Amino acid sequence: MSDEAPSETRGETLPEHVAANREAWDRYAADYVGPGERAWASPEPSWGIWGVPETEIRLLPDDLKGADTIELGCGTAYVSAWLAQRGARPTGIDNSPNQLETARRLQAEHGLDFPLHLGNAETTTFADASFDFAISEYGAALWADPYLWIPEAARILRLGAQLVFLTNGLLMQLAMEEYMKDDPAKATLRRPLFRMHRSVWPDDTAVEFHLPHGEWIRLLREHGFEIERLVEIQAPPDAVDSPKHSHVTADWARQWPSEEVWVVRKRG
Ligand SMILES: C[S@@+](CC[C@H](N)C(=O)[O-])C[C@H]1O[C@@H](n2cnc3c(N)ncnc32)[C@H](O)[C@@H]1O
């Protein structure tokens, strides 16, 4: 599905969108240090823009003891830290050296050591059937091409393993004109659903990927995943607008899902 010309970055040959996203995330990384520190220090997982607690939406398996887990686009790797605290043996992969630098510093500060790989979640070097659980909170879930990272996740997961990924809500995608940061989602459809796939921020270079629900279902099933849940996240009553996420208001997200989580399992 990817017909882009490769581009040369730091001596590696990366697909064009992966090179663009590495450059963008190396720039954004400084803004993710504070949130990463707070998330590492938090004993209880909470998810997405609105910090919905794990106790409410239960995205993690009950028993992670001894599980080999992979976080696809781990950023500062706080999700993997939460998995480690639950007895898992986590591994993280991320495309940004600067994000991984923060992750490594936080590992040292919290006395938690697990493998962190610099790489592209679309084409990893992990062996087939290496992991019992995969997760992506705003990582590969939207920054990698689903036609590449979903088959790759299927390859590296064991039979019966779960994949959980959190991304932008479909309705929010349609309610935004484009990714104009100060033009938040409205109560009208502003973009077509058909042929959704790749979008480039007009004022930036970063590339995101989103699919219609029917296409997610087709793609996931094609690669051997059964869909267990699609969690549509609602902003809590006390949520306030986040200046960092000016593409959606709390009021909008109390009425429609600004975020969604796919919980799927590789058929055993
Ligand atoms: C928003 S962060 C996600 C991490 C964390 N959960 C968070 O919300 O801060 C997005 C991460 O995805 C990473 N990323 C983007 N494209 C990637 C790819 N193709 N493979 C692996 N990681 C990728 C970026 O480098 C960035 O660290």
Kindly describe this structure.
The structure is a single chain. By secondary structure, this protein is an alpha/beta fold. 32% of the residues lie in helices and 25% in strands. The protein is built from 10 helices and 13 strands. It has helices at 16-28, 33-41, 54-57, 78-85, 97-110, 140-143, 146-156, 170-175, 213-222, 250-255, and strands at residues 6-9, 12-15, 46-47, 52-53, 68-72, 89-94, 116-118, 131-137, 157-168, 198-200, 207-209, 225-233, 259-266. The strands form 4 sheets. It has a 7-stranded mixed beta sheet with strand order 7-6-5-8-9-13-12, sandwiched between helices. It has a two-stranded antiparallel ribbon with strand order 1-2. β1 and β2 form a beta hairpin. It is globular. The two termini are 27 Å apart. Residues 1-9 have low confidence and may be disordered. S-adenosylmethionine (SAM) binds at residues 18, 21, 25, 32, 73, 75, 79, 93-96, 99, 120-122, 137-140, 143-144.
